């Protein structure tokens, strides 16, 4: 138990260091933006004196390190800067859009995990027979299919109206998940499927390999020889032991899902982080782009640390390290 606590402590100590590193990287890259925040805020017609006063007021003439330290203090206090001529807080837009991106990411994750487990276990049980071959073909095809291209195909194939009713809407306002779950689910279903399919292709093969390795072990043959039903052995023992490797792979794919969600949101016109970063790039708003990029990057780091901790808990062998 002490080893587990030490491992968890080390992971948690690494978290602020990684966040500090990604904040510096994002801030450093965005400092090379050719956009003048003074012109963005005051407009093209602002005088040189007004621009100089704006830069002085907001510390834009200070050295990069000094501006980075000011940015860190502001970020800790929930201040990611402002954007547009109206000086709107970036944090307010991020707070509105980020939950939508998380909803899309985790719905895609649920779909990916469910079908990966289902297809992976079926392929392992029927190894080298026609169900396994069929699932293998599907896995290769889904791995070769970009999410954004699949999204366009889904819109063309399933996004049309039946009479006056759109069964799977692909545009329009996103209903609130808690007020109208049915409407929210239908609006999110196609984007989530487009996001999940490539992950299913990879993860189902990982699950299949892990389950096959467990099925070939002596304890499985002993249990089956003793008369324990096959589905009990698979469900109670094999799956629990086989899921250690897929969990590791899944942690890496969560970042892919979140990054892909940003693109999928634009295609399906969902007002999440994707639309927010598109608006920031289109309107030359470096503070907005920086805030969105930083939030997604930090979320990715936090999620991967959580997956690492989960891996420690489910893998007894690593507790002795």
Structure at a glance:
With 321 residues, the chain is mostly helical. 74% of the residues lie in helices and 1% in strands.
Relative helix content: over 70%
Low-confidence stretches: none
* CATH-defined fold name: MetI-like fold
In terms of DSSP E residues, the strand content is under 5%
Description of the molecule:
The protein has a single domain (91-320), classed as MetI-like (MetI-like fold), CATH 1.10.3720. It has helices at residues 2-30, 37-42, 48-57, 64-76, 90-125, 130-143, 147-158, 181-215, 218-225, 230-242, 244-267, 273-282, 286-314, and strands at residues 82-83, 88-89. Helix 8 (181-215) crosses helix 10, helix 8 runs antiparallel to helix 11 (244-267) and helix 11 crosses helix 12 (273-282). A two-stranded antiparallel sheet has the order 1-2. The protein has 321 residues and is mostly helical. The N and C termini lie close together (12 Å). It is built from 13 helices and 2 strands. The longest helix has 36 residues, at 90-125. 74% of the residues lie in helices and 1% in strands.
Question: Which SSEs are present, and which pair or pack?
Answer:
Elements lengths: L1 H29 L6 H6 L5 H10 L6 H13 L5 E2 L4 E2 H36 L4 H14 L3 H12 L22 H35 L2 H8 L4 H13 L1 H24 L5 H10 L3 H29 L7
Antiparallel strand pairs: 1-2
Helix pairs in contact: 1-13, 5-6, 5-8, 5-11, 5-13, 6-8, 7-8, 7-11, 8-10, 8-11, 11-12, 11-13, 12-13
